[in-house]
Specification:
44% of the residues lie in helices and 20% in strands. With 322 residues, it is of the alpha/beta class. The protein folds into two domains: 162 residues, D-Maltodextrin-Binding Protein, domain 2 (3-Layer(aba) Sandwich), CATH 3.40.190; 124 residues, Periplasmic binding protein-like II (D-Maltodextrin-Binding Protein, domain 2, 3-Layer(aba) Sandwich). Strands 1, 2, 3, 4, 5, 6, 7, 8, 9 and 10 form a ten-stranded mixed beta sheet that branches. Helix 6 links the parallel strand 5 and strand 6.
Amino acid sequence: MRTLLGLAFAILLPAAAAAQDFPVRPIRLIVPFPPGGPNDIIARAVGQRMQDIGGQPVTIDNRGGAAGVLGTDAVAKAEPDGYTIAITSAGTLAISASLQEKLPYDSTKDLKPITLVAKVPEMLVVATSVPASSMADLVALAQANPGRLNYASTGIGGMPHLVAELLKMSANIDIVHVPYRGAAPIVNDLLGQQVQMVFLDLPILLPQVQAGKLKPIVVAAKERAATAPEVPTTAEVGFPQVLAENWYGMVAPGATPPTIVAKLNRLALEAMRSPDVKEKLLGQGTVLAGNSPEEFAAFIRSEIDKWSKVVAAAGIKLNENR
């Protein structure tokens, strides 16, 4: 018995010491999207401050592909020692579970939530040629012209697609989906009056809204956006259930010890409280969040449940052409 206890302590003590000293070498922070996008900007701001606080380099590793699935899977399969983590998106942690039958990881089992990092509200805008300046106007116009109005999205199953389908069901309107590959061509076609409306991350649309080239209708969030305070929320216009914030969270491999997860959580939260990080991200319409690993895990489960119901009700399939 003493021999067995001795062996157990011999195994546990190095692990405990490693957790106590963490971090003692560089941390690799995977971003499962190309450089320059919202996920990348958030990760670089938070990662740099984590590096300053923790005293070890935090290296950004952009691993784009399969709408974020490839990079997220790389974290799920990494050594669970806290030195490979990711800041990834709502799509990879919640939405893909409803859309992909053979997702290579289970986000509730193969990944360990660390903290919700940030939220970016979705804004609904219309082209200037659309005779609507409010949600009431837009819904009335769509109801009077079923199947005549269209909306763009960044692709089937993405947040802009799902929130538009949620609005369709909530408002009982018939609008036609026009999927694109990315936000930039959508904005160009909105300005050219070739599509009529879209939900997109607020920072993407804000410059054109401020220039008067697109008409803002609503933000799909519980509170008005600090960078667009004149735009009402969906709750204010009678659609409180139409909530969609493109969120980003920090995760580690599923078997990462709780002590290391707790240290990463404290490191991330301290970084997010830094005035320079807040100022940089808030100026882009990003709202920093921050919570416990347990709270973030519950949030992921609630988002999986919410969007799976929308996917099922709308009959969304990845191979469809809607």
